Amino acid sequence: MTEPVLATPIPTTDPRVARAIDLVWREAELLDRKEYSVWNGLYADDGIYVIPIDPETEDFAATLNMVYDDARMREMRVRRMTEGYAIAAVDAARTVRTVSRFVPESVTDSEVVLRSAQVLIAYKRGRHDIWAADLLHRIRLSDEGPASDQVALKVVRLVDSEEAVPAAGFLL
């Protein structure tokens, strides 16, 4: 029996990968600080933010998801999180997230596909909740430099996605 040949891993020290990781970390910081409008600005106009229920699905448009947001839906979600007397805004949890275990899947001069792990601690009403997920980001690299890089796709695969998930009151 022949051992499978593993592809040579792409180093996280590759400058394009480092740019993508920096953007993912910036996104995490903005979400923890509840700077949702700035967070939304990280996304490409055609960018998608998705939290699938099925842990194996790749066809997000044809399957049921907890969240499947294009630009219009992200904008509506941000408004709901920031304006008026919405329970999502008024009673939002405080969060601290760690994103690590970066594994580049593919790298070109215009795009990096990056897998990582996220552990999020949410504190609300005297209670801590743990949210764990595998993330996939497709980052578009801009010729204008790192400040113009954008998220084309973010997939949040919760480890317990097939179980009943409580209302979050924050973005993953």
Automatic annotation (TrEMBL):
GO annotation, biological process: 3-phenylpropionate catabolic process
Protein keywords: Dioxygenase, Oxidoreductase
InterPro entries: NTF2-like_dom_sf, Rng_hydr_dOase-bsu
Molecular function (Gene Ontology), one example: dioxygenase activity
UniProt similarity note: Belongs to the bacterial ring-hydroxylating dioxygenase beta subunit family.
Protein name: Aromatic-ring-hydroxylating dioxygenase subunit beta
